[in-house]
Specification:
The structure is a single chain. The chain is mostly helical. It is 72% helix and 4% strand. It has a three-stranded antiparallel sheet with strand order 1-2-3. The two termini are 22 Å apart.
Length: 371
């Protein structure tokens, strides 16, 4: 097994847990009377995610390759269920969660993984059609577009954009014709741009990040507080647990803006450390994908590259939002931000990549591999 990848993932989980304990103590005490409420729940999510990951490591990739279409259909059904009265839960105007007992399940997180698994299998089964025909490219992208439309209806613009970009990236790796790829990228970009500017809410977010100080107590409040946190952090930070911005100034301090609290408490050095950990994580993931391709493990290669593209996009968007270089989007920082759905699916994704590395190594030892 790729122990460096596992070690970096564990390091991110541990650091995220510490920062959630720091960022959420005040708001947890006000909301529930228990300062460690969110910390204990996140610890439970990590424990469940780790247990699930250990279980997935025992499942051969051939099982996932065959189950890709079923997982995609399951994702479509779950997205549809969000709009059934009494099933979907609406928070801050967005219907993104299904009630599963005492937990809220965010369907978009599962759908991202389902699309990556489906696309990996499709590129193996229909690779020649993808490279030589228009239909081979349009069929899977039509399904992904349908899912993106359902995500936009929640609305969840950030998840839809990450999903489309991940699918397009995988199609590019699959060898789709360059002109067709460029055409669809242009159409997808134009469609997302029109959707962004056609909604007053999204348009406000797009324009606010350009100058949040123009309205620092209303539309620009969240971003200005995040920038203040980065400014206070300086080089080495104000010290773990000593953040001021988490004391009801910065909304979503333990979820979408966890990095801003980390920057305030651990400074530029701590922030660069987190980015370095993610860089190593992605390097190992892409390395596993490349080695799988060299060993003839096509499905494993596409799966690893798909997970890597997805995580890389989400990290870039979250870091960019926290630093004010991208419009505010509700995307978590993988393996670190608070959230059960994100944590479970992130652990599953890392486990699948570890399984790819394991099967590639076993194939090399036995002199096998599909070529």
């Amino acid at each position: 097994m790729d122990f460096p990848l596992a070690a970096v993932a564990v390091a991110l989980l541990g650091l995220g847990l510490v920062m959630i304990g720091s960022a959420s103590a005040a708001i947890a005490d006000r909301q529930t009377g228990e300062s460690f409420y969110y910390l204990l729940r996140q610890f439970t999510y990590i424990a469940l995610g780790a247990s699930l990951a250990f279980g997935l490591l025992r499942i051969p990739l051939s099982v996932w390759e065959k189950s890709g279409p079923a997982l995609l259909v399951c994702g479509l059904v779950l997205l549809t269920m969000l709009f059934v009265p009494g099933l979907g839960r609406t928070v801050n105007g967005s219907t993104r969660w299904l009630m599963v007992g005492p937990f809220n399940f965010q369907v978009s997180e599962f759908v991202k993984l389902a699309v990556v698994i489906y696309m990996s299998g499709y590129l193996v089964r229909r690779g020649r059609a993808v490279r030589t025909t228009v239909a081979g490219f349009l069929i899977p992208m039509s399904l992904v577009t349908l899912i993106a439309v359902l995500l936009l209806a929640e609305p969840d613009f950030g998840a839809a954009a990450v999903l489309m970009a991940t699918a397009l990236g995988m199609m590019f790796l699959g060898g789709v014709r360059l002109w067709l790829f460029a055409l669809l990228v242009g159409l997808a970009g134009a469609a997302l741009s029109v959707l962004a500017v056609s909604s007053p809410y999204r348009l406000e977010r797009l324009t606010t990040f350009l100058n949040p100080w123009e309205d620092p107590f209303n539309s620009g409040f969240q971003l200005t507080q995040a920038l203040i946190a980065f400014g206070r952090g300086d080089w080495l930070g104000v010290g773990l647990g000593d953040s001021v911005q988490k004391l009801f100034y910065l909304p979503e301090a333990h979820t979408d803006f966890l990095l801003a609290v980390l920057a305030e408490e651990l400074g530029l050095v701590g922030t660069l450390g987190v980015i370095a950990l993610f860089a190593v994580l992605l390097w190992r993931v892409f390395r596993i994908g490349r080695r799988a391709a060299e060993a003839g493990q096509q499905f494993g290669s596409y799966l690893a590259f798909g997970v890597g593209i997805w995580i890389a996009l989400q990290v870039v968007v979250n870091v960019g939002v926290n630093m004010g270089v991208l419009p505010t989007k509700g995307l978590t920082l993988p393996l670190m931000s608070y959230g059960g759905s994100s944590m479970l699916v992130s652990c599953m994704a890392i486990a699948l990549v570890l399984r790819v590395g394991l099967e590639t190594q076993l194939a090399g030892m036995s002199g096998g591999g599909r070529r």
